[in-house]
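User: Integrin alpha-IIb isoform X1. Structure?
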Amino acid sequence: MLCQGPVKLSEALVVVYLQRKYTSFASRPDQSLIGSSLYGRFGSALAVLGDLDMDGYQDVAVGAPWSGDSGQGQVFIYLGNSNGLSATPFQVIDSPLPSSRTAFGFTLRGRADIDGNGYPDLLVGAWAADRAFVYRSQAVIRSRVSLTLLPDFLNPDVKLCHQGNTPVSCFVIQMCVYVSGHRIPQETALGVELQLDQMKQPMARRTLLLSTNQLQDTMKLVVQREVGMTCVNQTAYLRSEEEVQDKLSPIFITVNVSLLNATQHALLHGQTHAAAQSAGTRIGHCRGSNRFQTSRSLPANHADRVSVMPVLIVISRRTPQH
Ligand SMILES: [Ca+2]
Ligand SMILES: [Ca+2]
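Assistant: Predicted structure:
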């Protein structure tokens, strides 16, 4: 249950009561959401949106029609979780109107899939401007990336590849992307960026791609929805010991994945980075081997999140007065 808190406009808040056994509520709220804007009237409108990101928890919008730098109004989106709602808004939607005091966010409605893409959308009213806006939610493509180096035990003395006429020690970099999600596009076009020895300055990097002699590469991968995954391989080699000064520090290899086409009306959410590193290079002087630690996942970029995509469709106007 969502309630508007004690009315003190400068400190507006919304309190959350979670349902207990026998459909009862505790005498004290389980959570408080506090408006950030002085006299913003945070909590003037509340709307349960449905499950925006399809994680099984209901999400909520809170309107603050005088909030924002010039009081133009804002809507705050909170994602649900097992403890209630996120402590901070997942997304803040600013008024699309140039003028202030439009009361954007004075009324809210959710739980309606207006464009039929399988995700609930949001209606925001701005009565002082005689406008209402539709915000369509984008499909969420959940992603996972793996990076595998083969062999994972690289011996610099074993030179099975050739760079020109020169035998070189080489290894295969296998990059795989997995996607899933509710009503995601038939095809997900992804840009894949591979970086070799990323911790080093370009001239000091110790491994290069065999086909291009470059330190990096960008590729396009298309994942079919029914398949859910695709992989691509690249072969890299170790530069000769004469060209390399640092023979001890690990070699880092990273891969980053991003959505290629913004018109896909979808967002990539989840793990979009992967990295692998060697235990050490030990190129040349030592007859030891380089063992790679592969597929070390990095945290998802904080920007890779689900959001409500604003598509500003005016659906009502003031009726002309005669
Ligand atoms: Ca949710
Ligand atoms: Ca929708």
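Confidence is low (pLDDT under 50) at residues 281-289, 294-306, 314-322. The pocket of calcium ion (ligand 1) is lined by residues 51-53, 55, 57, 59, 79-80 (CB under 6 Å).
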